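Lecture notes, part 5. Sequence design as translation. It can be helpful to think of inverse folding as translation between two languages: the language of shapes and the language of residues. The source text, in C-alpha cells, appears below.
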C-alpha cells in the first residue's frame, strides 16, 4: 500500500510539473522546434528583450498587479478588522457570504457583469471611453479582496484580544494600538494576502479581457492575441522568468511565516518563564 501511494504521488507531481519542466528546457533551445532540442542557447531571451510590444505588456501587467495588490491588501486588512469587530452574528455571517461570492462566482460572469457596469456608468456620465486602466484596476481589486480577507481574518481571530486593550491602557490611542500591536501580530497574513493578490492579478486573463480598454494590454491578453498567429519560443523564455520570480516570492513568504512563528513561540516561552519565576 505504501508503494502504491508513493507511485500515485509521483504520477501527480509528474503530471503537474512535467509541462513546466518542458517549457524551461525548450526556452533554451536554439531552434523553434518543440520536439527536438538542437543546442543550448540564450537566443530567445535576447529576442524577448528586443520585443518592445511584449515588454510594454509586461510593464503594464506589473503596474496593474502591484497597484491592485497594494490597494486590495490595505482594503482587505481594514475589512477583516471590521468583520472581526462586528458584534452581531448574523452580520458576520452575511459579510462572510458576500466575501465568498467573488471567489465562487465564475470569472466569465464576474468579467461580463463588471464590463456591463463600467459601460453603463461611463455612458451615464458621458465619458468618451468606458473601459481603461482604471476599470481594469477596479476589477482586479474586486477579485483580489476576498483572498486578502481570507488570509488576514484568521490571524486576527488567533491574536490575543487583550493585547490592543493593554496598549490602550498604557496610553496608546486606538489607531496607535492597532499600528504598533495588532499589525505586527497579523503581519504574516498581510504579507501572504499581498503575495496572493499579486500572483492572482498577474495571472488573470478572463476578467482583464472584458474590462480592458484600447491602448492598455496586459501580458495574458498579449499572449492570447499571439495564439491567433503563432507563439514563438521567446514566450517560453518570458514564462520561465515569471515562474522563477513567483517561486522566489513564495519561498520568501514561507521563510517570513516560519521566522514569525518562531519569534512568536520564543516570546510565549519567555512569557511563561517570567510568569513561573514570579510564582516562585
Amino acid at each position: 500500500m505504501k508503494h502504491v501511494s508513493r507511485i500515485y504521488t509521483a504520477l501527480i507531481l509528474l503530471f503537474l510539473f512535467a509541462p513546466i519542466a518542458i517549457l524551461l528546457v525548450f526556452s533554451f533551445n536554439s531552434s523553434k522546434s518543440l520536439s527536438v532540442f538542437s543546442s543550448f542557447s540564450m537566443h530567445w531571451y535576447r529576442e524577448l528583450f528586443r520585443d518592445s510590444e511584449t515588454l510594454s505588456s509586461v510593464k503594464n501587467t506589473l503596474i496593474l498587479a502591484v497597484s491592485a495588490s497594494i490597494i486590495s491588501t490595505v482594503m482587505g486588512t481594514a475589512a477583516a478588522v471590521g468583520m472581526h469587530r462586528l458584534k452581531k452574528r448574523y452580520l458576520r455571517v452575511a459579510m462572510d457570504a458576500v466575501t465568498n461570492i467573488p471567489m465562487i462566482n465564475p470569472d466569465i460572469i464576474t468579467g461580463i457583469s463588471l464590463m456591463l457596469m463600467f459601460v453603463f456608468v461611463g455612458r451615464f456620465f458621458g465619458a468618451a471611453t468606458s473601459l481603461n486602466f482604471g476599470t481594469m484596476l477596479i476589477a482586479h481589486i474586486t477579485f483580489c479582496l476576498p483572498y486578502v480577507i481570507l488570509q488576514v481574518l484568521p490571524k486576527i481571530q488567533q491574536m490575543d484580544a487583550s493585547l490592543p486593550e493593554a496598549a490602550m491602557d498604557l496610553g496608546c490611542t486606538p489607531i496607535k494600538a492597532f499600528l504598533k500591536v495588532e499589525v505586527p501580530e497579523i503581519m504574516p497574513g498581510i504579507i501572504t494576502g499581498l503575495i496572493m493578490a499579486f500572483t492572482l492579478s498577474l495571472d488573470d486573463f478572463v476578467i482583464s479581457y472584458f474590462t480592458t480598454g484600447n491602448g492598455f494590454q496586459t501580458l495574458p491578453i498579449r499572449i492570447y492575441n499571439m495564439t491567433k498567429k503563432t507563439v514563438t519560443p521567446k514566450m517560453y523564455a518570458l514564462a520561465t522568468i515569471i515562474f522563477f520570480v513567483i517561486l522566489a516570492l513564495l519561498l520568501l513568504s514561507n521563510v517570513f511565516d516560519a521566522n514569525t512563528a518562531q519569534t512568536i513561540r520564543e516570546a510565549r516561552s519567555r512569557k511563561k518563564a517570567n510568569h513561573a519565576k514570579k510564582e516562585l
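The translated text above is only one of many valid answers, since several sequences can fold into similar shapes. The first helix runs from residue 2 to 26.
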